[in-house]
From TrEMBL:
The lineage of its organism: Eukaryota, Viridiplantae, Streptophyta, Embryophyta, Tracheophyta. Keywords: Leucine-rich repeat, Repeat, Signal. The keyword Repeat applies. Residues 33-70 form the Leucine-rich repeat-containing N-terminal plant-type domain. It holds the Pfam family LRRNT_2. Signal peptide: none annotated. The keyword Signal applies. This is Leucine-rich repeat-containing N-terminal plant-type domain-containing protein. InterPro entries: LRR_dom_sf (IPR032675), LRR_N_plant-typ (IPR013210). PANTHER family: SOMATIC EMBRYOGENESIS RECEPTOR KINASE 1 (PTHR47988). It comes from the Eukaryota.
C-alpha cells in the first residue's frame, strides 16, 4: 500500500509541534538568562572569540560554550 500524503506529513508535524512547544515554554526564562549573559559578555574583552557561540539568535543559552544549565534549562554555572 502506498503511503498517503497525510501519513507522510505526520512525523514532520510532530517534529514542528514539539519544536514550537519547546520554544514557547522555554522562551520567557531563556530570554532573562540570555539578556544577563549578553550583558556580561559585552563587558568582557574576548580577543580569542571564546564566547563566539553566545548567539542571541539561539533560543536556548544552554547550547552555548561554557554554560551549564539545570533540568529546567536555567543557567546555573559559567
Amino acid at each position: 500500500m502506498a503511503p498517503t500524503v497525510a501519513g507522510s506529513l505526520l512525523p514532520l508535524s510532530v517534529i514542528v509541534l514539539a519544536t514550537v512547544a519547546s520554544t514557547v515554554l522555554l522562551a520567557p526564562v531563556a530570554v532573562k538568562d540570555i539578556d544577563a549573559l549578553l550583558a556580561l559578555k559585552s563587558g568582557l574583552h574576548d580577543p580569542n572569540g571564546a564566547l563566539k557561540s553566545w548567539d542571541p539568535q539561539l533560543v536556548n543559552p544552554c547550547t552555548w560554550f561554557y554554560i551549564t544549565c539545570d533540568d529546567n534549562n536555567r543557567v546555573t554555572r559559567m
